[in-house]
Design a protein that fits this description.
mainly alpha; binds protoporphyrin IX containing FE; 4 helices; elongated
């Protein structure tokens, strides 16, 4: 079977997306629900931190892989002009999600989000976990809509 560099990039891109967005789904729908079962704040924070810290590394690597392969595909098909066409909204959506996660994982989290979380979780645990849960649901929802739009769009279909 013949495999060109575009196909390899596309396969790695989807692999990255599966591990990354799949992980976000697991954290949102399972881990953050399980956190509520602990009654003591220290246990909630310790459990969340243990799992999220390990996932953060996976998410950094898979975000990098997804971004590199995504930009490579755009370069390969000379598709930069797609950013000027609204029918390719899923290209914008992919890029926006990637920028959001990259900012969060590589800049905001190490610089101050982590410290903010530890402090807030001690002061207002219920409110803090509710906010984290809400943010995860929003990010997961827009990521899943984007995945559907990207699969349909890159195979010639359109949702809107
Ligand atoms: C820097 C960010 C990104 C860029 C530049 C990018 C670019 C691309 C390109 C060029 C394609 C192939 C389009 C085609 O075949 O014509 C693609 C496919 C795809 N991308 Fe992205 N992408 C990025 C991030 C993401 C993210 C964050 C997600 C998930 C939320 C995602 C999900 C997908 C999916 C599911 C496909 C369809 C694969 C298929 O069915 O063949 N991408 N992307």
């Amino acid at each position: 079977m013949y495999l060109d560099s575009f196909m390899i990039a596309r396969a790695l891109h989807v692999l990255g997306v599966v591990m990354w967005i799949g992980g976000v789904s697991m954290v949102t729908t399972v881990l953050l629900q399980a956190v509520n079962e602990f009654s003591r704040t220290e246990d909630k924070v310790a459990f969340f931190e243990k799992v999220e810290r390990r996932f953060a590394w996976q998410a950094r690597i898979t975000t990098l892989l997804t971004g590199l392969t995504g930009f490579y595909m755009l370069y390969f098909i000379e598709g930069w002009h797609l950013y000027t066409r609204i029918t390719y909204w899923w290209i914008h959506a992919m890029t926006v999600i990637w920028v959001l996660f990259t900012l969060m994982l590589f800049v905001l989290e190490p610089l101050f989000l982590h410290r903010w979380f530890l402090q807030k979780a001690q002061q207002e645990p219920e409110k803090t976990f509710a906010l984290i849960q809400r943010m995860h649901w929003i990010l997961l929802s827009i990521s899943l809509i984007t995945v559907m739009g990207a699969v349909a769009g890159s195979h010639g279909g359109q949702f809107f």
